[in-house]
Amino acid sequence: MPGYKSLVTALLIAALGLPALAQETRSYTDDSGRVVDIPADPQRIVSLHDVSLTLPLLELGVIPVGSHGRTTAQGEPFIRSSAVLTGIDFNNSTIEFVGNLPADVEAIAALEPDLILTTPWQTAPVDQLATIAPTIVLDSAVRNEFAMHDVLADITGTQDRLAILKTRYDGQIAQIKRLIDTGDIRVNVIQGVDGQLAVWRTYGALGKVLRDAGFTFPARVDAIEEGQFERLSAEALPEMDADFIFVTYRTDTLETPADAIAHLEAVMPGFCDFLFACRNNQMILIPREEASAASYYGLGALAYMTISHISGRNFERKAD
């Protein structure tokens, strides 16, 4: 009964839009330019992007009451990347699944949030969400992905926790630099997508580790604007070559290393013959969840992976 459902939604929004308890607030200008009064100490957050918002909240020690998520082929909801990066998912926490795209406004309203965090990617209307609770738009395209931790730490008062995460990461980068002459090693991250090469200037967490540690990249990759990527034809393969090449595969959809290879074969059959790193067994295949998500745990795992694959190893160097 569409009419009845709309009425229930309207009543929920109207009821929850009335302030039940006085709460200290502060003014916040979000990434869409909206000025919103938000709780100074939010206790019931609904997060409407699993990787960009929920994951960093969990790393900061904040458990939202509800979150956007994905569903498996069997219809089971999950928070993308969270199980392997935080150990927390819908099935072992108090976090309620509020849908994917668009998020379920009725489910959000029923949780009685005091703050809703959303992104430009989420299609649930901001004006409708704002009738439930103060709603702010946070855009990972405006700020680099790891800057989202800083924003969320400020909103939730968890700056001390973030300082610990940053100190640990600084130590991990220092360890890479101590063990590897990174400035003398060229690396790259590539991915086969729909018959083309996808190449980022800085590929998520993996790219951050590699660049912060001081590795060099092919000139064609350095020419890409920060925060952007390009899709290239097979003819660009030689320009993508390096001493070590990293290739990712999507574990949340049950891909394996063989799938990553198949995606590159779709770009160019026999692609390995055209890449020095591949011919010399210096192409490293790793799960995309750890490699791409903005996660401090992921940064640590990638730092260790980099050391384990490159430090103390005799390897071939690509001639310029």
From TrEMBL:
GO terms for cellular component: outer membrane-bounded periplasmic space. Residues 45-318 form the Fe/B12 periplasmic-binding domain. This is Preprotein translocase YidC. Transmembrane segments: none annotated. InterPro entries: ABC_transptr_periplasmic_BD, Bact_iron-sidero_bind. It holds the Pfam family Peripla_BP_2. The keyword rRNA-binding does not apply. It is found in: Cell envelope. Keywords: Ion transport, Iron, Iron transport, Signal, Transport. Belongs to the bacterial solute-binding protein 8 family. Residues 1-22 form the signal peptide. PANTHER family: IRON III DICITRATE-BINDING PERIPLASMIC PROTEIN (PTHR30532), IRON(III) DICITRATE-BINDING PERIPLASMIC PROTEIN (PTHR30532:SF25). GO terms for biological process: iron coordination entity transport.
